[in-house]
Amino acid sequence: GGDSGATGGGGGGGDDKITMGFSQVGAESGWRTANTKSIQESAKEAGVELKFSDAQQKQENQIKALRSYIQQKVDVIAFSPVVVSGWDTVLKEAKDAKIPVILTDRAVDSADKTLYKTFLGSDFVEEGKKAGQWLVEQYKDSKDTVNIVELQGNTGAAPAIDRKKGFGEVIAADPKFKIIASQPGDFTRAKGKEVMEAFLKSNPKIDVLFAHNDDMGLGAIEAIEGAGKTPGKDIKIITIDAVHDGMQALADGKINYIVECSPLLGTQLMDLAKKVVKGEQVPERVVTEETTFTPEQAKQALPDRKY
Length: 307
Ligand code: GZL
What we know:
The protein has ten helices and twelve strands.
């Protein structure tokens, strides 16, 4: 194959077949497994040679994976950073090795924007705002205090920081909304259930649960039912993602509203990767298209959902 030129890392094989090193956060949620499936299927369709690693939600494992991709001289690196900070050193190593990097799903807080070519993923602040807007609308005619508990994603993750920010900004408009407890549930069902059990024990009056993803909401539903309360009625539940099991709970009335966060980033990622390896210009930010769902809309959408 021809010379890989300034942008590529001298990857394998012929001119058009590129090699991508991908570091995935883990397999913590339904969203994550759907995202992994999208990336692996899209790589096959695009004829991209994919080296894939699962970091089990540990940053040090992602850094190790990125270093191994640099060693292997892949043509392009893509990853979903489990947390926003601590990436500058390894991203500089990739830059020095002339291997372009694409951020997907989650962002990093590096001040140096030349450390990556583009960030493909959702606007998490917007997702948090949509969740808050639904709540404000639901309680617009009520004067009573609304006691909210919040299950956050893993500490330091872009979606956890930004969803909390967007939601908080919107409900700050009316002092009747009170977040009486807010803890990380790490985006998993198990932790979501465990933290919700603690919330229920220490807060006699909980009106609303805002969970940063469906999986924590589903875990919380188990805790709420275990406490003899009815999810969706005694405690209103808002979640983010719209994966199958969340949409089923929404259709069943156990969740009241879901803000979609699409995991289907694979096709766009492979297109961006091919452009970047060729040294073509790409937008520095590609925002995912996504919507929201009520129980009625979930019933309509469920039969056609891919995940
Ligand atoms: C959001 C993604 C989050 C999902 C969770 O793009 O990073 O991580 O909302 C997943 O379900 O674990």
